[in-house]
Hints:
Among the domains are: 1-240, CATH 1.25.40.20; 444-516, Serine Threonine Protein Phosphatase 5, Tetratricopeptide repeat (Alpha Horseshoe). 46% of the residues lie in helices and 0% in strands. The protein contains 26 helices and no strands. It has helices at residues 7-27, 64-73, 82-90, 98-111, 152-159, 162-169, 185-192, 195-203, 218-225, 228-236, 251-257, 261-269, 284-290, 294-302, 317-324, 327-335, 352-358, 362-370, 386-393, 396-404, 421-427, 431-439, 454-460, 464-472, 487-494, 497-505. Helix 5 (152-159) packs antiparallel against helix 6, helix 9 packs antiparallel against helix 10 (228-236) and helix 10 (228-236) runs parallel beside helix 12 (261-269). The N and C termini lie far apart (112 Å). Residues 121-145 are annotated as: Disordered.
Amino acid sequence: MPRNTCLHAARGPIVKATLFRKARQFFNGSLDDPNHHTQVPCPTEAHITREDPESPTGVIIVPVSELQRRKADMRDIPISHPLLSIATSCLKDKYQERPNASRICQSLAELKATVTYKDTRPGEEITDEKSNITGVAQPQNAGKEISVGRTDLHDAAERGDVEAVSWLLATPVDINSRTEEGESALSLASRRGHEEVVGLLIEANALINIQDNDGRSPLYWESLKGHVAIVRLLIWRRADINPCDKDDDTPLGIAAQNGHIETVLTLLNAGANIDHQNKAGLTPINLATRCCEVEVVRLLIERKANVNICCKAGTSPLYTASQNGYTHIEDLLRRAGANIQTVKADDHGHSPLFEATLEGNKDMVDRLVDAGADTNVATTKRGYVPLGLAAQNGHAAIVQTLLRAKAININHQTKNGRLTPLFLASKDGHVDVVRLLIQKKCDVNICSKGGISPLAIASKNGHTDIVDLLVKAGAKVNLTAESGDVPLGIAAEMGHISVVERLLQAKADVNDQNKV
């Protein structure tokens, strides 16, 4: 056996200097497709020296060929043999110093020794009546239920224990065995982001397209984490680019959502479906927009992503950007040809302009109006338009912007109540809005369903300033509703003395009586 042999040292230079370098070269166009090279050549012992910058000083590196020979030597040891448990346990600091661990494991394997041992400390027993060695107790896992089918390789891969994984791969271990959750050692290492362990498992020909019970592959996990080096390695080793999990999410979608732009670029270059929709109907660009990943959105637009695909709830990327006030993304989408009139296809039917108006987002309203948004589209069941909504909520600045729009219908009425923007503003006492609408020559005498005028509703609610503005603008002070009510009678009944006085000054007929 070579002096100072260390399995832990063997894996680092081999994986990093060979697999990841070749994956990078492949993506840079300086290496052929690995489909023509099914086995990545590994350096021999002569190729790795003490001066190698990736080789620990004073350590002799064991090449993969040596590991394979050791594996062949151990072919007669069954996978359940107690030596394997004791070997992996020896690699843990609690039981043996790491520099000697591999030598001890190798010696045990060569001798095939029978060892009987029982620690006197509670909870540290490692023997039973059937077998002299069943494994070493692991206090850190005390009380935890281990899934059926879970192996030492799963545990080592999940915690990123390179030395333990290296040792286990030199034994007749089933590299693709799964846990109860359907996860392989490669899946677990990928989910935890253990780059070196992933490299070891791939080099040992682990299945790279294996999916867990939720349909998540190693490429999915590495895309989620943004580990672009491993993503490139998996793609180079012919990983499926578009595997879907149980929610139909793909690696590209999950990378876009998390803002991993280099991973997104790598997946796109490998042919990932740029417009794939998950179960919710969300595309990568919609996912990136929701998370305000500006640069990812920019990249997807450059790669010709469809900017007008709506999800199942009816929201487009532009709608999402408008709703959340993501102005930079809204700019990118608009310049890319996003449909400004894309309407939310649910029962509410809100357009981007309507949503921006509802939120009182003047900057967004300005941008949408300047981009040519139709201000007269009624996008709710009740037939509200943005102007009516802004008037009702007292957003005077937004009203001013909307009134600048071409072909604005200043007297638009809602479906059921036939309410105009002036009526809505008069009802809720928004003086500035009423003034703006009057300045733009709105009709001050259009009545709602039931014949109630803006003056009547302002009188009922005691809005004296609005009553004054309406009277000066030519509102009919004696206009009678279908119920027989007139503004003066309504104001008197409600006890609004100042309104009564203003109406009397405007020559309201004192002989008109409210219908009883």
